[in-house]
């Protein structure tokens, strides 16, 4: 992930200053102090409940302050959780990975994963196709209607919540070709807030940055923040 950011910064002719933020230390009172200088915020993939609420706070801060946000796998899931909490005006929307009894399971185990008891080598792994909306952040970045991306996860966006979140401004710009699985989420009224269920960093190269990383950096470098000066500060 770090190298993919450097690939994209090189393409955009910018230096890069990564500000590593421990999400366990990020709460509502502290988020402004830790993130106010960032021109972009990236929440990477991961497993387990540790630091989840801090990641949700980072997504909230990015949404409210129009700071470019890039969520990778779990980073997409916390983006969805935060937006659902906002539109439902409730702290209950969550992932069943962390809150099995949540009333709003906006992120849930894939149907084929719910009966899996032995976890080894049972995730959704490898390349899968993703159909893109042409008129979207993702569609413009890739400039092609169908792409292949690499996956490593067990949970997915819960399709029961597609309609209410879409009505509130979430754009489902990438999905499995049959429409069954959400692959990319965006916010319509935000300069660049996008989460993807796959891992685009796996396909980035020094002379060929991944399109999503490339455009994330392109937008982030033009954000004016406190003490705006090179190199580009990104909170991760």
Can you describe what's shown?
The chain has one domain (2-235): 3-Layer(aba) Sandwich (Rossmann fold). The strands form 2 sheets. Strands 1-12-2-3-11-10-9-6-7 form a 9-stranded mixed sheet, sandwiched between helices. Strands 4-5-8 form a 3-stranded mixed sheet, covered by helices on one side. Strand 2, helix 3 (52-65) and strand 3 form a beta-alpha-beta unit. With 236 residues, it is of the alpha/beta class. It has 7 helices and 12 strands. Helix 3 (52-65) crosses helix 4 (74-88).
Order of helix and strand elements from N to C terminus: HEHEHEHEEEHEEHEEEHE
Give the overall pLDDT as a whole number. 89
CATH classification class:
Alpha Beta
> Which percent band covers the strand fraction?
25-35%
Helix content: 25-40%
Largest sheet: 9 strands, mixed
Strand order across the largest sheet: 1-12-2-3-11-10-9-6-7
Classify the secondary structure makeup into a structural class. alpha/beta
Low-confidence stretches: 112-121
Q: Identify the CATH architecture.
A: 3-Layer(aba) Sandwich
| CATH fold topology | Rossmann fold
- In CATH, the homologous superfamily goes by the name Class I glutamine amidotransferase (GATase) domain
Through-space gap between termini: 10 Å
Number of contiguous helices: 7
Number of domains: 1
* Total E-strand runs: 12
* Shape assignment: globular
The Cα radius of gyration reads 17 Å
